[in-house]
Amino acid sequence: MSEVLGILLDNARVHGRGTVRVAVRDLEDALALDVSDEGAVTGEPSRLFDRGRTGDVHGTGIGLALARDLAVSLGGRLSLTSGHPATFTLLLPVGQDETQGAWTGG
User: Looking at residue 69, what DSSP letter applies?
Assistant: First the structure.
């Protein structure tokens, strides 16, 4: 989880504007970690997680793709709500044992 948070914070630092906010929400079946900034989302939001997509000439375009892959490996998911603020949300399952498989909550 710390690797995903690090990638999201670095992304907000490089591409965001203004204040970066981190919030943790306890949902019924998941833990939600939100990273928000006041920067605009450039390009098609659904493609931000594509490997090789970068908004920085010095970037490699693997950060958000890696963060998404790590979230999935933890049984969770990573999503983006574009707008002001733009918010990346990491959802991780809670209260399930490993034999139940990945979380499929909504």
Answer: H
The answer to whether the pTM exceeds 0.85 is no
Q: pLDDT for 1-47, tens place per residue?
A: 899 999 999 888 887 778 899 999 999 899 999 999 887 666 666 66
Confirm whether 100 is domain-assigned: no
Task: Quote the number of domains for the chain.
Answer: 1
CA distance 94 to 5: 17
Range of the domain at 57: 2-94
Q: How distant, in Å, are the alpha carbons of 53, 61, 72 from that of 36?
A: 20, 20, 20
CA distances from 63 to 2, 73, 93 (A): 14, 15, 22
